[in-house]
Amino acid sequence: MKKTLVIVSALLALASCGTAEKAQDKEIGLQLYSLRNEFKADNYAEVHESIFQTLQESGYKTLETASYNDGKFYGVAPEVLRDDAAKFGLKILSAHTSHNPSTEDLAAGNYDEALAWWDKAIEDHKTAGMEYIVTPGMPHVENLAQLKVYCDFLNAVGEKCKAAGLAFGYHNHSHEMRKVEDVRVYDFMLENTDPEKVFFQMDVYWAVMGQVAPVEYFEKYPGRFKLLHIKDHFTIGKSGMVGFDAIFGNFDKSGTEHIIVEIEGVVEGDNILNSCKESADYLNALESFK
Known about the structure:
Elements: E1 4-6, H1 17-24, E2 28-31, H2 44-57, E3 60-65, E4 68-69, E5 72-73, H3 78-86, E6 91-96, H4 103-108, H5 112-127, E7 132-135, H6 144-163, E8 167-171, E9 179-180, E10 183-184, H7 185-191, E11 199-203, H8 204-209, H9 214-220, E12 227-230, H10 244-248, H11 251-254, E13 258-261, H12 272-285
Parallel strand pairs: 1-2, 1-13, 2-3, 3-6, 6-7, 7-8, 8-11, 11-12, 12-13
Antiparallel strand pairs: 4-5, 9-10
Helix pairs in contact: 5-6
């Protein structure tokens, strides 16, 4: 089973030679949302080469994007991003992209407009060389009937993606762990989406914040979690809130193919580069991840 560690990090000049060599032992990538203040559409031309080179030198192999607007990623055409990254040995693996029906559309049971939007988006993601598209959130649902319509919508998008040779998934935050009509939203989504069309990218930190155990979901819904977001409260491994060893030890149950680590912020007085370096050091040293 392929195990890909996608780490949001910039080990820049801060990394020692020993750490860089260790990083090369594992397939490392980047969730670009973590560098949202450093890597944007309005500065892509100025920073992309230095950032991609830094990632290559630090051992990174894959990227997950978080910017798709008007047919472009970070303000450039899909093939430009793909080729720019490839010059530095980086593959555009996946994307966080969203275009959902409104709550009103869900209430009316009609998602035709939202579904039609995906035709061009899927084409662009395929051109960028991606293997996965992930929707990172859902509209507010007021009852299970609306949630069922949303699950039908996800199945429909997933069918389009599958026909194009891409896998389609859903990324959670903590609010999917709430209950609607005494049913947990996340469980309902897992049970009312087609495993052949929709996978789940569990964000393990938000799952824990929602007071559920990731491994219990791996056991209850085996094979559904092709991608994982590895995250912590700021620097990975410091909070003790998330049982990473148990998560890494249950890949066979989860069906995980790639791991994506995301840093949402840093504590006051710290900086994102220090946090990312410490996170990478922690993960590369874990014996449970091999």
